[in-house]
């Protein structure tokens, strides 16, 4: 039997064509889990050019891919800045599948507008990063944990952090603070939920080749009058030069560790934050 047969996984931020959420959804489905995919309603004016060219439809396209492979998937739109929508989301997933065994808090705020000095950072940008990157995982953990506790069969909660969960850098104070907070949530929730056999861990990638939108890259492309893909290619090349293993992560690198932490062999691992960065940061 597949290791996750009979389990249900809820994955946030799962709509990107090259995204970590899609890779995680495919990994967990291939291990036997039914998957609930959620993302914010897609705005085609800010979709990555490659997605637009491919006619990508976000979580609907991911679900179709899973179903073609013989898996079970359902889609749920949710704006993670809205607390009421988060509670409705978790309830809807539980109603659809009858349970939630695995929660993957993968969604993140779009970077770029935060990439300024703390002295120039807008309070609204700061608050948005905390809402999406820290408060939403807290609320999802709260509501999903209640369902896991009621079911009485344990569970897995996996938060997708960042290298900035462990070491801040210049012009990224909102992102770093929100991701540091995610590690605090991981450790505290791990202690609170241990008696219920619910493990809580974090995966902390470095740079990942996801093609996700960056407002800063978009602005740079417009200023230079070049395609966004050219700016992205430069950024990937520059980031790869800083990694001992000579490349940045692919989404599947992250999904592999999530798949392990979601499975039966990781039942005695909790409160941990694992780096996936090719040796760029040891912490």
TrEMBL record:
<dbReference type="InterPro" id="IPR020904">
    <property type="entry name" value="Sc_DH/Rdtase_CS"/>
</dbReference>
<comment type="similarity">
    <text>Belongs to the short-chain dehydrogenases/reductases (SDR) family.</text>
</comment>
<protein>
    <submittedName>
        <fullName>3-oxoacyl-ACP reductase</fullName>
    </submittedName>
</protein>
<dbReference type="Pfam" id="PF00106">
    <property type="entry name" value="adh_short"/>
</dbReference>
<dbReference type="InterPro" id="IPR002347">
    <property type="entry name" value="SDR_fam"/>
</dbReference>
<keyword id="KW-0560">Oxidoreductase</keyword>
<dbReference type="GO" id="GO:0016491">
    <property type="term" value="F:oxidoreductase activity"/>
</dbReference>
<dbReference type="InterPro" id="IPR036291">
    <property type="entry name" value="NAD(P)-bd_dom_sf"/>
</dbReference>
